[in-house]
Write a structure and sequence with these properties.
Blueprint (H helix, E strand, L loop, with lengths): L10 H13 L12 H4 L8 H18 L2 E6 L7 E5 L8 E7 L16 H6 L3 E5 L12 H16 L5 E11 L1 H11 L14 E7 L14 H4 L3 H6 L12 E7 L7 H14 L3 E7 L4 H8 L5 H12 L2
Parallel strand pairs: 3-4, 3-5, 5-6, 6-7, 7-8
Antiparallel strand pairs: 1-2, 2-4
Length: 315
C-alpha cells in the first residue's frame, strides 16, 4: 500500500480517504520502464529514462520533506487521482496550483511530478498534481479535458481542508498537460455548469505545448488523442479563446524548434492579450522539452518566478 500523510479530516474528504484505503492496491503509478519514450530511446534526442529516474528521486525527496496526501480520487477511474502537497506549516486561504503532467497523452503519471511542488510549498502555495486518462486505455478527446475539469471541481470543493483557497486556483501543465491547462483556461464557459464561479480560476501556465492540433504532433500522440480534423479543431485551445482566465504565463524552451510549439505559444500569448488577459510569453534560453518542466520545480528559474508571481497575484 502506498504511504501518505493524513490530516485530521471530516466529511467528504474523510470518505475519499476511506475509498483510498479500499482501492489503493489498484492506484499505482505507471511503470516508467514501460513508457514508449523509454522503450524506444532511438526516436528521441532526450534521454527520457534518465528524466523519469531523476523525477522519481526528486519526488521522493519532496515527500520526505513536505506534508502530502496521495491518491485522492476525483472520479471513479484509477487514473482520476490526484496528490496534494502542502507547506510545512498548514496555511490558511493559500493559493492553489494544479499541475498536469506531459507524455503525449500516452504516458506519465502524477507520482513522477511531485517535485514540482517543492518551491511552491516553500512559498506557502498548496500544490495539486493530477493524473488523467491516457490514450492507451482507448480514451480520446474530450475525456482528458473532462478529467481536468473534474480535478478543478474537486479542488474547489475540498482544497479548503488542506488550507487552500478554492477561489484562488491557477492551472499549469507541461506538453500534453499544457494543452489541457490552456483548454480549461482560455474559455471558462464550462465552469458555471460545474458549480464553480469563473473568478475562481485566476490563471494558467501552459508550458511547452502546441495549441493548434491541426498541424502538429508525432505519430501515436496528438493524432491518437484527437484522431479526426473535427476533433483536432475542437481540441485546439488557440481556436476557442473566449472569457479566458485573467492571467497567463506561456513558456517554451528556446531549443524546442520542432513542429508548431513555438509559433502557437507566441500566438496564444498574443490572442489572450487581445481578449483582455494579462499574458506573459517566456522563451527559456538553453532549455529543451525536458528542461522546461524541470525549471518549474527550480526556485531559481525565471519560469518558476513568473508562475509564482501569477499565483501570488491571485489575491
Amino acid at each position: 500500500m502506498k504511504s501518505f500523510t493524513v490530516r485530521t479530516l471530516t466529511g467528504p474528504t474523510l470518505l475519499c480517504l476511506t475509498a483510498i484505503v479500499l482501492a489503493s492496491s489498484n492506484s499505482v503509478a505507471q511503470d516508467a520502464s514501460q513508457y514508449y519514450t523509454v522503450q524506444h530511446p532511438e526516436q528521441f534526442r532526450i534521454n527520457w529514462k534518465e528524466f523519469y529516474r531523476d523525477a522519481d528521486a526528486r519526488t521522493g525527496a519532496v515527500r520526505a520533506r513536505f506534508p502530502h496526501t496521495l491518491d485522492l480520487p476525483y472520479g471513479p477511474d484509477v487514473k482520476q487521482r490526484l496528490d496534494v502537497y502542502s507547506p510545512i506549516r498548514k496555511p490558511q486561504h493559500a493559493p492553489v496550483f494544479l499541475f498536469l503532467h506531459g507524455g503525449g497523452f500516452r504516458e506519465g503519471d502524477r507520482a513522477q511530478y511531485g517535485y514540482i511542488s517543492a518551491p511552491f510549498a516553500d512559498k506557502g502555495v498548496v500544490t495539486v498534481v493530477a493524473s488523467y486518462h491516457l490514450t492507451g486505455s482507448g480514451s480520446q478527446y474530450p475525456v482528458q479535458v473532462d478529467d481536468t475539469r473534474l480535478a478543478i471541481k474537486w479542488i474547489y470543493q475540498h482544497i479548503a481542508e488542506f488550507g487552500g483557497d478554492p477561489n484562488r486556483i491557477v492551472v499549469g501543465g507541461h506538453s500534453a498537460g499544457a494543452i489541457l491547462a490552456a483548454d480549461v483556461g482560455v474559455n471558462r464557459g464550462w465552469m458555471k455548469a460545474a458549480g464553480i464561479p469563473a473568478e475562481a480560476l485566476r490563471g494558467i501556465a501552459p508550458i511547452s505545448g502546441p495549441y493548434d492540433l491541426r498541424t502538429d504532433g508525432r505519430p501515436g500522440e496528438l493524432d491518437v488523442y484527437a484522431p479526426t480534423l473535427q476533433a483536432q479543431e475542437q481540441a485546439s485551445p488557440l481556436l476557442h479563446i473566449h472569457d479566458p482566465a485573467p492571467n497567463a504565463v506561456i513558456a517554451i524552451g528556446a531549443e524546442e524548434t520542432a513542429g508548431n510549439t513555438m509559433s502557437t505559444s507566441q500566438d496564444l500569448a498574443k490572442r489572450l492579450k487581445e481578449a483582455g488577459a494579462s499574458a506573459v510569453f517566456l522563451s527559456m534560453a538553453g532549455k529543451d522539452h525536458r528542461g522546461t518542466v524541470q525549471a518549474l520545480g527550480d526556485e531559481h528559474s525565471e519560469l518558476f518566478k513568473d508562475v509564482l508571481a501569477m499565483v501570488e497575484k491571485s489575491t
